Amino acid sequence: MPRLPASEENLPEVTPVPVVPENTGAGGRLIMPAQNEQPEESTDVVPQLGFPTPNPTPESVQPERPNPFSSGFPEPTQPESTGLTPLEPEPMPEPVIPFNNSVTPSEPEPTSAAPFFPSQPEPETTVIPTRPAFPGFGPSEPEPTPDPIVPQNTDSAESRFNSLMNRSNATDNPPVVPQFPAAGTGTVTPDAPRGPQQPELKIEKIAPAEAVVGEPIIYSILVRNVGGSPAHKVVVEDRIPRGVDPKSLGTSPQAMISEDKLFWELNTLNPGDERKIQLRVTPIESGDIGSVATVRFAASVAASIRVTAPKLTIEMQGPQEIAVGEQIPYIFKVTNSGDGEGRKVFIRALLPPELQHPGGNDIEYEIGNLPPGESRQVELTLTAAAAGQVSPQALVTIDGNVKDDEALNLKIIESRVTLSRKGPQQRFVSRPAAYTNVITNQSSTALEQITVTEHVPAGVEWISQPGGEAQWNPNARTVSWNIPKLLPGEARQLISQVVSSSVGDFEGAVTVVDVNGNQANLPTSLSVKGFANLEVDVQRGGAPAVAVGEQVAMRVLVNNDGSAPAKNVQARFVIPAGLQFVDAKGPVRHRQAGDTVLFDALPEVPVNGQQSFDIILTATQENRDAR
User: Fold this and answer.
1) Cis amide prior to 253 (ω within 30 degrees)
2) Rounded to 5 degrees, what are φ and ψ at 548?
3) Hey, which end of the chain has fewer CB within 10 Å, N or C?
4) Can you spell out the DSSP letters for 355-424?
5) Tell me, what DSSP letter sits at residue 295?
6) CA-based R_g, the chain, Å
7) How much helix, strand and coil, in percent to the nearest 5, is found in the chain?
8) Closest of 216, 200, 204, 207 to residue 290, by C-alpha
């Protein structure tokens, strides 16, 4: 049989129950284990299987081998003597279990053997049909004749073996007449239970609801005596689930194994005692896996077994949309709809980077024990840190095993309301500037009672629009608009016109806020520039006409009547026909180039500034329109 490996979760290595081979002596005698090979009891680890020497059975009759766990644990019986001399028991060596997936017995394997018990050869004179090795909790078919009555043997393994060896199939063989011993051996110890005894065992299986193929999972079986008296000879049975890798199976405490069944002998459970069995399995195929665990025990009075299991579900409540910077309230509700108590229940929240919490992005909250039918509710407040489409996840776990999970989709937007502005950033003095403010609802819900306010800086004046809904407040230097409602995705345009009479850079702002506090802000700027306006005035003294050979003096005045200084101002004078250049005078140097007199450029002519240039000419010929 395979040797089960130990679990990675500190589970001890499982020692499988070997099928003990038949040891036969001369003449085909059955060699049974010696009495001194009985294992010691342990409440933590199931011992290796060893059985005391049973009473021999007649060689002429082969009794039927019953299920050792059917109908509780029946009292063992002693077969009636047939006059045959019982065989002397011979010690049987304990089998060596190698650390691999197969066991090579020291003796040849028998053709058939009931799990947990040594095989016995069939008599040569009679062929006896055998019953199923483990037919279930009760017998597979009614017994036509009662079992022989034999005094109770104090050893549990020997009792089961004697019962197995002394039961027969009444339909095919005559009943065996019991042989009573000369004297009884039963005693009552001082601590033996007296009066009505009513043990009650509660078995509970705790297993994850989901698993991943190839990844080990651990599930637990809890057995507790909730009755008022001890339960004896407690045996837990579980099958290896279909769809898992048997080679990776591990248990704690060690289990005995036969084919696809696992067994644990828990001996006696006193009232209030509880034992925990853990199994590690690795799924190798998709689909549902599971098994049914059963518990059997012996008692002197009626007893009941209640199999319970918690069934935990988690519900996550929260908004579907949020804006960056807003807080998000989430509610986690855990409900136990099963019939068993959930112990050490935890809520675990897995958060994406867009959501922040002081505890980090993997948060655990301990609920504790959750009885059947009860619910617990936990609230968690998060903060939206960045825009995006995210799915925070909530898990409910027991012993680290996920029992249920839920995720909610959440849309994080930059802002529920956005604001944009169209218009010039530069303007000349006294030139109006028109702007369009666009307010848009970016959320999936309507925005109501929206107020738009534009702050107009000093030095800039707002120009009222006829028929407009804007309200100008000259003291606060603000203009405001009211929008009753803005549907999801809807945008509204508001026109604003301003003008400045002075040069400078002016900073303002536009704000939008609704009744729920959703808001947007946008700074504004306007750079107002001045412009130069140069005017030229030509003045000439004396008579309007001169004779040929006479000189004439002319003065050219350059005035800047604009709102900004004139830069790089250069004066150029063209000599009319019939006149000849004599000399010139001005703020800068000059030169003559043909019929043109050029002055060097002036760096600047300030606002309202003036520059003069004097030119002297001589009349050389007649010209009635010299200019």
Assistant:
1) yes
2) -60, 135
3) C
4) EE-TT-SEEEEEEEEE-TT-EEEEEEEEEE-S-EEE--EEEEEETTEEEEEEE--EEEES-SEEEEEES-
5) E
6) 53
7) 5, 40, 55
8) 207
Identify the three-state secondary structure at position 247.
helix
Amino acid at 182: A
Give pLDDT, residue 117. 33
Question: How far from 572 is each of 278, 597, 615, CA to CA, in Å?
Answer: 107, 6, 11
Tokens of 409: 């989709």
Question: How far is the C-alpha of 466 from the C-alpha of 132, rounded, in Å?
Answer: 103
Determine the 3-state secondary structure of 144 from DSSP: coil
320 in Cβ contact with 366 (< 8 Å): no
Quote the pLDDT of residue 264. 95
pLDDT at 551: 86
Residue that has been written with the tokens 């099963």 in this structure = 338
The single-letter code of the amino acid at 295 is V
Return the number of other C-beta atoms located less than 10 Å from residue 260's C-beta. 12
Structure tokens at 472: 């100008």
The residue to which tokens 């030095």 are assigned: 459
Q: Tokens 């306007």 correspond to what residue?
A: 526
Grouping H, G, I as helix, E, B as strand and the rest as coil, residue 35 is: helix
415 contacts: CB under 8 Å, gap ≥ 6: 323, 324, 442, 518, 519, 520
**Cα separation values, 256 from 183, 207, 247, Å:** 36, 21, 15
Q: What is the pLDDT of residue 342?
A: 92
The token pair that represents 602 in the structure block: 């002036």
Q: Which two tokens stand for residue 215?
A: 């990844």
Nearest CA-CA partner of 177 in 86, 61, 55, 29: 61
Degrees (nearest 5) of the Cα angle 233, 86, 90? 70
Q: Which domains does the chain have, with CATH numbers?
A: 200-308 (2.60.40.10), 316-338+347-413 (2.60.40.10), 417-529 (2.60.40.10), 534-619 (2.60.40.290)
Residues in the chain: 627
d(CA 28, CA 271): 48
Spatial distance between the Cα atoms of 26 and 381, rounded to a whole number of angstroms: 82
Cβ–Cβ under 8 Å, residues 526 and 425: yes
Ranges of residues in the chain with a pLDDT under 70 are: 1-184, 186, 188, 191-195, 299-305, 542-543, 625-627
- The per-type count for the chain, helices as H runs and strands as E runs, is 1, 39
Do 58 and 79 touch, CB atoms closer than 8 A?
A: yes
CB 272 within 8 A of CB 208: no
Q: If DSSP codes are grouped into helix, strand and coil, which group holds residue 102?
A: coil
What is the token pair recorded at 338? 């099963």
CA distance 122 to 560: 135
